[in-house]
């Protein structure tokens, strides 16, 4: 009897080691979207008994291959299961609400004689956002080469905050040059843009991975050489400071024309 027990115990341990379960779900999804949760498992030759899905501690979906109707959905407030898109390895949720955020678990059980059970869990955040595109606002529509031109980008504020990127003629600006002022707002200072004829086109992008990826409209910036001092007639302090060295003869005049105090 003792020998039989040891053999059976060894069999159970081996069966548990053979059963491998892995859950794959997107970490962030947009409220109102459709999302598919995956449960990948290898039974290692052991027959499948059940697959159960939980949100927190509440079971909302079960798959039993021996049943006449293998798939069963259980009531869960705000959770709408697409049964036609669900099976032993996946569950499809429709129109997910924000409050559905939390931990999801897939539990897989083997059939007799072991009834070994293994599970895996992962968190999913449902983000509720608007669809407003980011807005690019340059300090000026004219850029004097060698002087700093401040460019602002304002995006929809979300949790988590969007990643903001800038582009000049579809070439991405080095992220080290971008300053994030607060969630949904960033700036960078254009210093030396191409000397090619024609305007430079600037735009910004806002992205939350797996949720949304939007671009602002492209804005043209005209280029002028820094020695053109006519711009100092109505300067901002940034452009004034940048042109001070090349337009010394206009310093006194412009201090009189532009005295913020």
**Residue ranges: pLDDT <50 for 5 or more in a row?**
3-16, 233-246, 248-261
Q: How widely separated are the two ends?
A: 98 Å
Main pleated-sheet profile: 6 strands, mixed
Shape: elongated
Which percent range describes the beta-strand content?
35-45%
Q: Main attributes?
A:
disordered C terminus; Ig-like_fold; Ig-like domain-containing protein; 6-stranded mixed β-sheet; Ig-like_dom_sf; mainly beta; signal; 3 helices; 261 residues
Description:
This protein has about 260 residues and is mainly β. It has three helices and 20 strands. It has two domains: about 15-125, Sandwich (Immunoglobulin-like); about 135-225, Immunoglobulins (Immunoglobulin-like, Sandwich), CATH 2.60.40.10. Helix content is about 10%, strand content about 45%. The strands form four sheets. Strands 2-10-9-4-5-6 form a six-stranded mixed sheet, with no helix packed on it. Strands 12, 14, 15, 18, 19 and 20 form a six-stranded mixed sheet that branches. The protein is elongated. The model is unreliable at about 5-15, about 235-245 and about 250-260 (pLDDT under 50). This is Ig-like domain-containing protein.
Briefly summarize what is shown:
Keywords: Signal. By secondary structure, the protein is mainly beta. The chain has helices spanning 2-18, 237-243, 251-257, and strands spanning 20-24, 28-30, 35-42, 48-55, 58-63, 71-73, 80-82, 90-94, 102-110, 117-127, 135-138, 142-144, 149-154, 163-168, 171-172, 179-182, 185-190, 200-208, 212-215, 219-224.
């Amino acid at each position: 009897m003792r020998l039989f027990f040891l053999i059976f115990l060894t069999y159970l341990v081996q069966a548990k080691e053979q059963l491998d379960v892995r859950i794959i779900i997107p970490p962030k999804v947009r409220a109102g979207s459709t999302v598919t949760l995956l449960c990948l498992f290898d039974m290692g030759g052991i027959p499948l008994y059940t697959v159960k899905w939980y949100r927190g501690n509440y079971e909302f979906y079960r798959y039993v291959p021996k049943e006449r109707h293998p798939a069963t959905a259980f009531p869960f407030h705000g959770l709408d299961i697409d049964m036609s898109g669900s099976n032993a390895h996946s569950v499809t949720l429709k129109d997910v609400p924000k409050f559905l955020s939390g931990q999801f678990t897939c539990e897989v059980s083997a059939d007799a004689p072991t009834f070994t059970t293994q599970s895996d869990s992962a968190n999913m955040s449902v983000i509720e956002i608007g669809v407003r595109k980011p807005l690019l606002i340059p300090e000026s529509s004219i850029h004097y080469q060698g002087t700093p031109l401040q460019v602002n980008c304002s995006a929809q504020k979300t949790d988590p905050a969007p990643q903001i990127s800038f582009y000049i003629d579809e070439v991405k600006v080095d992220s080290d040059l971008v300053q994030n002022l607060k969630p949904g707002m960033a700036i960078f200072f254009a210093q030396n843009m191409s000397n090619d004829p024609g305007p430079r086109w600037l735009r910004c992008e806002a992205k939350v991975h797996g949720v949304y990826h939007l671009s602002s409209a492209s804005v043209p910036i005209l280029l002028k050489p820094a020695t053109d001092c006519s711009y100092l007639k109505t300067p901002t302090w940034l452009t004034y400071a940048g042109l001070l060295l090349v337009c010394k003869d206009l310093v006194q005049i412009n201090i009189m024309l532009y005295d913020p105090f």
